[in-house]
Design brief:
CATH class: Mainly Alpha
Number of strands: 0
Radius of gyration: 16 Å
CATH topology: 434 Repressor (Amino-terminal Domain)
Number of helices: 5
Shape: elongated
Order of helices and strands: HHHHH
CATH superfamily: lambda repressor-like DNA-binding domains
Distance between the termini: 26 Å
Largest sheet: none
CATH architecture: Orthogonal Bundle
Number of domains: 1
């Protein structure tokens, strides 16, 4: 796996929330409506992943797509669960 993808997978969620949207989070929370600040804090601390429901809420709050948030989660999950060795005993399925 490409090193830049590996790095992005590990930090993308936190960077997206902390750096790009940190000012918006506090203002958005004060205004309203969508998502408990506890859920946002758990995501940032790595205690909770971004579910489809959360992706929709974040996309609405920050004018992004839900796919943006789910892709960040997917990249993080793949990076966090990368096997330490290639599995050589598996053979490709013949079509």
């Amino acid at each position: 796996m490409n090193r830049s993808i590996d790095i992005v997978g590990k930090v993308a969620k936190a960077l997206a929330i902390n750096q790009r949207f940190v000012r918006s989070v506090s203002n958005w929370w004060l205004d309203g409506v969508y998502l408990a600040i506890q859920r946002v804090n758990e995501i940032v601390r790595g205690k909770r992943g971004i579910s489809p429901d959360t992706a929709w809420l974040l996309s609405e709050a920050f004018d992004t797509s839900p796919e943006f948030w789910l892709n960040l989660q997917s990249m993080h999950d793949l990076s966090a669960n990368r096997p330490s060795k290639h599995i050589k005993s598996l053979k490709p399925v013949q079509a």
